[in-house]
Design a protein that fits this description.
362 residues; Spore Coat Polysaccharide Biosynthesis Protein SpsA, Chain A; Mannose-6P_isomerase_type2; mannose-1-phosphate guanylyltransferase (GTP) activity; 10-stranded mixed sheet; Nucleotide-diphossugar_trans
Length: 362
């Protein structure tokens, strides 16, 4: 089985820890190890480096190369510019097809996720691989049994049972909702009708390429032009010309939302998956109790609770008094003080840095 581990995100919701040139997936935030390193350690042990591909941006390609020297150089799929995930997934799929793996079961993963139960995840990948080998014209989501009613994730409704294998169940995908109302999430959690959607799935490159041909014909033609140039002396020039002109659209909007429902299924598993996608989500992931403070570096909190306080400047102390539900991050060139309810606005704030003298801090 082939593995595609996407590592091109900028991690703006983790600013100022995460920066364009060194985003969160490369930062050792959990047990002194980055999420991408954790995943690649396991995946390389299970499948070998020759089965793994890492799409990333031109800005981060050297970071991938230097951190993971065992990864074959031609398995680092470099996007010349960031154009959202529909072009990125398409580029990855045509690359695998060009390398002769178009009909192989292929797992798509994201490098900023955390998998706590490795053995369960490995078993799920094995079951998914077997299923896609038998039915290569399907897309099989790897669902996670919900741990609580989370309104900040995507949820997949379980349909009728299609297959059982090694204690795992594959269901029809009966619906998908992104960031539901909390009341709905509570009901689904209590009735066990849905699974969390980490965004992981197993399919074949040829099947996904066919979906581009059906639902994104213009992008498909652009991808075919790029594919002809791959592994030739024209590759760089063609990529630089075509890729920036591709529509910047998510893979969900371009493909997944348009696919026939009977072409996608969901496997239910328990991987102890987590997506600490914001600084407060990281605090929740690391805390033992809700009112706990999570700290790093030289920090002193006085009558402060439910806060994350990170200090990356060794010769400074960061002190807080009476904070409740705050994020405080001190780095050598930037400081963030933000209430947990305002975290969604970090991205909007950073947008205003672009094309100004503040852009160097991104």
């Amino acid at each position: 089985m082939k593995i595609i581990l996407f590592a091109g995100g900028s991690g703006t919701r983790f600013w100022p820890i995460s920066r364009n040139k060194y985003p969160k997936q490369f930062i050792p935030l959990i047990n002194n190890k980055s999420t991408i390193a954790r995943l690649l350690d396991d995946l390389s042990e299970w499948y070998g480096w020759n089965q793994i591909y890492v799409p990333t941006t031109e800005l981060l390609a050297a970071l991938v190369k230097n951190n993971f020297p065992s990864l074959p150089l031609n398995h680092i799929i470099t996007e010349p510019v960031r154009r959202d995930l529909a072009p990125a997934v398409g580029l990855a799929m045509i690359t695998l097809a060009k390398h002769g793996a178009g009909s192989e079961p292929t797992t798509i993963l994201w490098s900023d996720g955390y998998i706590g139960n490795k053995s369960n995840f490995k078993k799920a990948l094995s079951v998914a691989e077997s299923f896609i080998k038998k039915d290569p014209n399907k897309l099989l989501f790897l669902g996670e049994k919900p741990a609580y009613p989370n309104e900040n994730l995507g949820w997949i409704k379980k349909g009728k049972i299609i297959n059982k294998d090694n204690g795992l169940i594959i269901y029809e995908k009966a619906g998908f909702v992104y960031r539901p109302k909390l009341e709905d999430a509570k009901q689904w959690f209590e009735k066990d009708t849905h699974l969390w959607n980490p965004g992981y799935f197993v399919t074949t490159p040829n099947f996904i390429i066919d979906q581009y041909k059906t639902h994104q014909p213009e992008m498909y033609q652009q991808l075919m032009t790029i594919q002809k140039a791959l592994d030739t002396d024209q590759e760089s020039d063609v990529l630089a010309k075509i890729y920036p002109s591709m529509e910047s659209i998510s893979f969900d909007d371009a493909i997944l939302e348009k696919m026939d429902d009977n072409l996608s299924l969901v496997l239910g598993g328990e991987y102890n998956w987590a997506d600490p996608g914001t600084l407060y989500a990281l605090k929740q992931f690391l805390q033992e109790n809700e009112d706990d403070n999570v700290t790093k570096g030289l920090v002193y909190n006085f009558q402060t609770k439910d806060s994350l306080v990170y200090n990356f400047v060794k010769k400074q102390i960061v002190t807080t008094i009476g904070l409740d539900g705050y994020i405080v991050v001190n780095t050598p060139d930037a400081v963030l003080v933000c209430h947990k309810n305002q975290i969604p606005t970090i991205k909007a704030m950073l947008k205003e840095f672009e094309n100004t003298e503040l852009e160097k801090f991104l």
